[in-house]
Amino acid sequence: MASIIKSIVLNKPNKVASTLLRTYSAKADVTQYETLAVSVPKKNVFHVELNRPDKLNTFNDALWDDLTTCFKALHENPECRVVVLSGRGKHFSAGIDLKSLIKNFTKVNEIDDTARKARAYAGYIKRYQESISSLEVCAKPVLNLIHEGCIGAGVNVITAADVRYCTEDAWFQVKEVLIGVAGDTGVLQRLPKVIGSASVARELCYTARKVTAQEALSIGLVSRVFPDKDTALTEVLNIAETIASMSPVAVQAIKQNLVYSQDRTIAEGLEHICLLNAINHQSEDITKAAIAQATKTGQPDFENL
Ligand SMILES: CCC/C=C/C=C/C(=O)SCCNC(=O)CCNC(=O)[C@H](O)C(C)(C)COP(=O)(O)OP(=O)(O)OC[C@H]1O[C@@H](n2cnc3c(N)ncnc32)[C@H](O)[C@@H]1OP(=O)(O)O
């Protein structure tokens, strides 16, 4: 073992020594939004909370747009390595803000020309799609904590996250069909993949049947169920902290390749990770992590990415 370590260290002696000694000192960027509260409860862990509690975190135009802007900023922010997403107030989210939906659609319906009316509708759909997809586009893993109601647009959001946890009182409803809409912001694409059952996904989309926390666990919609929100948040932040302590080069490549591979063949996914790792294997993180594993010295400090 000693000779392996020696050979690793000899490869990059100065860089390893200097980065192992590095201490965390950078200030976290905590931009706030009209409808989102952002905090940094642990090193490199950003907590984003849907923050329209009196409106049950329903999606109005501001929330759709804030989500996009926030996740783009977190994607860019090297201080952020993991995101925890939850909702303030009584429910995680009661879905789209129906008042805002009616207002927007009434305005579009005033347009006479069919092509122009269709273009306006497409504009809204694309804007909402971009918002939900921003969780997936974000290079950092997104851990979602859901409590009480998670309805309509809420289910679209959580299926774009990397990992979902919920409380015992959580319930889920793909409710679009009940408002006369075929979900168009990702649930039809992502839910079957997340739970791995086209049959269950289709049943939930066609019927808008409510799913309890225990059923969500049994169908694979969530990874774990916690007794209450405080316990859940403590546990999810601990999981986030563990992920944030890993090499961000490795963690972000894992997400990039998993997202890339979900719509492609195994051969295409393998080619992608081959190219990605041909670059990432040159990172100092591998040397540092290998030394730490070989010497049983715990996780080293990795530079932000
Ligand atoms: C291009 C479009 C693509 C996107 C499509 C997305 C579709 C969807 O999201 S479909 C799902 C839409 N959401 C709903 O249908 C939920 C409706 N709400 C409820 O069923 C209940 O409110 C709920 C079970 C969530 C909670 O019940 P609770 O008793 O706890 O609270 P309430 O007293 O009912 O509600 C409190 C106030 O919030 C207002 N509110 C609730 N949901 C919505 C909503 N979706 N949009 C707008 N406002 C909502 C409710 O009216 C109360 O307001 P106030 O009377 O002023 O206190």
Low-confidence stretches: 4-26
Main sheet attributes: strand count, strand direction, barrel closure? 6 strands, mixed
- Taken together, the total number of domains comes to 1
**Which homologous superfamily in CATH is the superfamily?**
2-enoyl-CoA Hydratase, Chain A, domain 1
The helix fraction, in percent, is 40-55%
Note the gap between the termini. Answer: 30 Å
What CATH calls the topology is 2-enoyl-CoA Hydratase, Chain A, domain 1
**In the CATH hierarchy, what is the architecture at level 2?**
Alpha-Beta Complex
Protein name: Delta(3,5)-Delta(2,4)-dienoyl-CoA isomerase, mitochondrial-like
Pathway: Lipid metabolism; fatty acid beta-oxidation
Pfam family, one: ECH_1
InterPro entries: ClpP/crotonase-like_dom_sf (IPR029045), Ech1-like (IPR045002), Enoyl-CoA_hydra/iso (IPR001753), Enoyl-CoA_hydra_C (IPR014748)
Structural notes for this entry:
This is Delta(3,5)-Delta(2,4)-dienoyl-CoA isomerase, mitochondrial-like. Keywords: Fatty acid metabolism, Isomerase, Lipid metabolism. Belongs to the enoyl-CoA hydratase/isomerase family. InterPro entries: ClpP/crotonase-like_dom_sf (IPR029045), Ech1-like (IPR045002), Enoyl-CoA_hydra/iso (IPR001753), Enoyl-CoA_hydra_C (IPR014748). The protein is of the alpha/beta class. It has 13 helices and 9 strands. The strands form 2 sheets. It has a 6-stranded mixed beta sheet, sandwiched between helices. The two termini are 30 Å apart. It binds ligand LH2PNOKW. Ligand LH2PNOKW binds next to helix 4, helix 5 and strand 5.
